[in-house]
Design a protein that fits this description.
CATH class of the largest domain: Alpha Beta
CATH architecture of the largest domain: Alpha-Beta Barrel
Largest sheet: 8 strands, parallel, barrel
Number of domains: 2
Number of strands: 12
Shape: globular
Radius of gyration: 24 Å
Strand content: 5-15%
Helix content: 25-40%
Distance between the termini: 41 Å
Length: about 525
């Protein structure tokens, strides 16, 4: 475990190239060797096909880095592995004593050999964390497996990611909600997305400290781009990353000769801010800078730490954000502990979305709620039709209707009611059941910017910002492919309407839509 609660921990991010050898790989190993000798950096994280681009496996790099005497943090994403492959790779990681993991949804694949690669996203990061948690206890997934015996407990130390740098309330609430889900599923440390806004960093810290997971280590990402990369980020070409306009202007004013000094100085200030605010560490990424530059940055941060409060105004970009979770502290420019209210009238789905939701919810209430008389009638009719000619007719009718209304993918294990009647299998590019990925920008899906809204932003708008703790702490199980093409209605009634998902009693602090308003949402039963 790289984290020590008694000190501020430094980690560094390495990005393997699309090669098994060469100058970049040699540079990484040389960097790792210096870090291992100096012991200032506690761990080196290794990305998993960053940006959706193929590259050398983090496991291959991790084994070499660990042999040098420094802890690797293996990025483990969901984008290009199904759940069986994940289990196999986890056994491999454990076999090689590579047990510190950063669990991510992953960036959408961009290309591959002979064309675009197929995105997998069989399960999401909340599911993967629960699998790792269960593997740490030692168990057997399915007693039907041949030679089905349990396995001894493993010893993974898994963390997760959160982005406090979201412009819209629906995006930001989605990020914090999913953070709680991931912590409930066993995440033991948190690394933030890259960003430059001190108030947003502070917001994330305050949110965590007000939750029951207040002791979980929180590490802020210090990313210092080149001028060219800063322009790319500003154009929203890197999913989930925000470059404030005023920060870009600072880069643009640079004389190229001053770029190196500026980047080291910028990183040093961000480290000092994180340390001064109370973060547990800094996760540093400095493209195209060497190990000596990193040491200069850390050393200079100690100088800035003595006056970190004077740096806050330099890193507050309130004009970039349409929502802050906490009210502003006018004295410091950061936040006070009071949660912001928000104007419910400003969070409204358009007319067609609103009608779609209300009619769907009305249908759900009458046909799938046990307290309605029609429930038992439908249950008896569908169960009596099982394994008969009428089951095929009912299934065809169900999916004909649901294809027209929801673009249904015939899962046989429908989660519509849990997502305000938006199908994640057809309307989320990553098929996510449990909250958004980190890639949205201004409410748009990272894969279809300015074309498709993130379904979790749409869900928030459909519910008019009304949320419910119990719903927010329910993990929707992944798609069961054995039910593919079968009637989800029949499957629901056969279970007698039993809700699925793991409910936990976590208390999640939420902003009220208006003073004194209650926060009730639609039922989360999976049907």
């Amino acid at each position: 475990m790289f984290y020590n609660k008694d000190e501020f921990s430094y980690t560094f991010e390495l990005v393997p190239s699309r090669s098994s050898k060469g100058k970049k790989i040699d540079f990484i190993l040389n960097f790792a060797g210096k870090a291992a000798n100096d012991k200032v950096i506690k761990a080196l994280s290794i990305t998993d096909n960053a940006g959706g681009n193929p590259a050398l496996s983090p496991m291959a790099m991790g084994r070499e880095i660990k042999s040098l005497g420094i802890e690797p943090i293996i990025h483990f994403s969901c984008k290009d592995k199904n759940r069986n492959m994940m289990e196999s790779l986890l056994f491999e990681l454990d076999r090689h004593h590579l047990r510190t993991l950063l669990v991510l949804t992953g960036d959408y694949p961009k290309y591959g050999i002979h064309g675009m690669a197929k995105p997998v996203f069989d399960i999401d990061s909340a599911h993967l964390l629960s699998i790792i948690r269960d593997m740490n206890t030692g168990f057997l997934y399915d007693p039907r497996v041949k030679d089905g015996i349990g396995f001894p407990p493993l010893k993974f130390y898994a963390g997760c990611v959160v982005s406090p740098f979201k412009r819209l309330i629906g995006e930001q609430i989605g990020q914090y909600n999913k953070l709680i889900l991931k912590l409930n599923q066993g995440a033991r440390f948190i690394i933030t997305q890259m960003g430059f806004d001190a108030r947003k960093f502070h917001e994330c810290l305050m949110f965590l400290r007000q939750s029951e997971f207040s002791e979980t280590p929180l590490i802020g990402t210090v990313f210092v781009p080149t001028i060219k990369l800063a322009r790319i980020i500003y154009k929203n070409l890197i999913p989930g990353c925000i470059m404030p306009q005023k920060m870009l202007e600072r880069f643009e004013k640079l004389n190229p000769k001053d770029e190196l000094f500026f980047r080291i100085d910028l990183g040093a200030k961000l480290i000092a801010l994180l340390k001064g605010m109370g973060f547990n560490g800094a996760h540093i990424s400095i493209p195209e800078l060497d190990y000596n530059c990193l040491m200069d940055m850390i050393e200079k941060s100690e100088y800035y730490l003595e006056k970190w409060e004077d740096l806050r105004d330099e890193f507050v970009f309130d004009e970039e954000w349409k929502f802050h979770y906490f009210k502003k502290d006018v004295k410091t420019g950061l936040n006070i502990s009071e949660i912001n209210m928000f104007d419910k009238s400003g969070i409204k789905a358009d007319f067609s979305e609103d009608i779609h939701y209300k009619l769907s919810h009305l249908f759900h209430l009458y046909f799938f709620e046990k307290d309605k008389k029609i429930y038992n009638l439908m249950k008896d009719m569908l169960i009596s039709a099982e394994d008969t000619f009428f089951e095929k007719i009912i299934t065809k009718f169900e999916y004909l209707m649901k294809r027209m209304i929801y673009d249904c993918k015939e899962c046989g294990d429908c989660a519509l009611a849990a997502l305000s009647y938006l199908c994640p299998q057809s309307q989320c590019a990553k098929y996510l059941f449990n909250g958004p990925c980190g890639g949205s920008n201004n409410g748009w899906c990272e894969v279809y910017p300015n074309e498709k809204k993130c379904i979790y932003v749409r869900k928030f708008e459909r519910l008019e910002g009304k949320l419910e703790e119990e719903t927010l702490n329910t993990v929707i199980p992944p798609r069961d492919w054995s039910l593919n093409g079968t009637s989800s209605w029949l499957n629901f009634y056969k279970k007698d309407g039993a809700e699925e998902g793991t409910r936990t009693p976590t208390k999640l602090p939420l902003p009220d839509p208006e003073p004194g308003a209650s926060a009730n949402s639609a039922t989360s039963a999976k049907k």
